[in-house]
Amino acid sequence: MERLEKLLRERCPELELRRDEPMSRHTSFRIGGPVPLMALPRSEEEVQEILSAAALEAGVTPFFMGNGTNLLVADEGADLFVVKAFHGLNRLELAKEGEWPGRRTIVAGSGVLLSQLANFAMEHGLTGLEFAQGIPGTVGGAITMNAGAYGGEIAQVLSSVTSVSLPSEELIRERDFQFSYRHSIYQERQEFILRASFTLEQGDPAVIKARMEELAAKRKEKQPLEYPSAGSMFKRPEGHFAAALIDQCGLKGFTVGGAQVSAKHAGFVVNRGGATCADVLELVDRVKEKVLRQTGVELEMEVKVLR
Ligand SMILES: Cc1cc2nc3c(=O)[nH]c(=O)nc-3n(C[C@H](O)[C@H](O)[C@H](O)COP(=O)(O)OP(=O)(O)OC[C@H]3O[C@@H](n4cnc5c(N)ncnc54)[C@H](O)[C@@H]3O)c2cc1C
Predict the structure, then answer these.
(1) Domains, the chain, ranges and CATH?
(2) pLDDT, tens digit, 9 for 90 and up, residues 161-208
(3) Terminal CA-to-CA distance of the chain, rounded, Å?
(4) Which spans in 65-113 are helix H?
(5) pTM across the whole model
(6) CB of 229 shorter than 6 A to ligand 1
(7) Does the pLDDT of residue 101 top 90, yes or no?
(8) Which of 57, 190, 213, 252 would be a feasible disulfide site paired with 4, CB 3.0-4.6 Å?
(9) In whole numbers, what is the pLDDT of the chain averaged over residues?
């Protein structure tokens, strides 16, 4: 990692690099020990340099992240070289009018927040991203996770993705994203998503705005947004809702250390203050065990654990 840091400082003197960076500063859960090295690229050129340097250092594992809203990091940290897209890579523009009447394409950098993207679409009278406004991730994280809510998901609106693989090959995908529920091909590939295009239909800005406000109000009413969390802890099991199963097992409010099954929404595990990763993982194990015993349904974590 030290050699990689030296190489990056030589090749990319402007690049923001942080050593022994606590991941609790970069996750919405506010949990996680340090990673030895983190890079915060501000341009696509910096990403290319980072990946070609990382490829030269055998034994270094790069991990790509966005806003850290779907991550749980071990208390002792993780031996990873983290490349975070959130700070830079925030290009957001309307592409030239294409061949489809009544449709327009937005190009967004991987570090753009979904809320910014959804608002941009609304301001340009484009419909299809209303569902995304309240999801606190970035474009890169949302594509990787095929994020979705209230009947919408990224797969419905994404038209192309430009990514870079190690050492620095640029790839453009317009299909074969292998989308399924909270899954895309990017979960299996070591590719950094640089930017993406979303093709949307023309709509009425007032109607789009009203729908976004309606969904934001629903989130506020149903979700414990006042506490740090990583959103829904578990994937939706086929034919069930994780929150309903957990509630049915009497686990609302169940607590281990600083971690708690939210009393407001049983699908969320919240950090009530000072929760450790160990608290969360123990709580998750106990919830899974009880739900399996009482309902026969096996819960699977949606949140990614780094250790
Ligand atoms: C309060 C709250 C509400 C939420 N509500 C929802 C919801 O309604 N629906 C939903 O689907 N999710 C929801 N989430 C979860 C989370 O916001 C989404 O999964 C989001 O898409 C994660 O984006 P991120 O940028 O934070 O990604 P991260 O958490 O940083 O990373 C997630 C995954 O994406 C990968 N990744 C990130 N950026 C890149 C990149 N540039 N290139 C390659 N790989 C990358 C990471 O390696 C990791 O595998 C919620 C979370 C919270 C805290």
Answers:
(1) 2-84 (3.30.43.10), 92-208 (3.30.465.10), 224-306 (3.90.78.10)
(2) 999 998 889 999 999 999 999 999 999 999 999 999 999 999 999 999
(3) 17
(4) none
(5) 0.97
(6) yes
(7) no
(8) 57
(9) 96
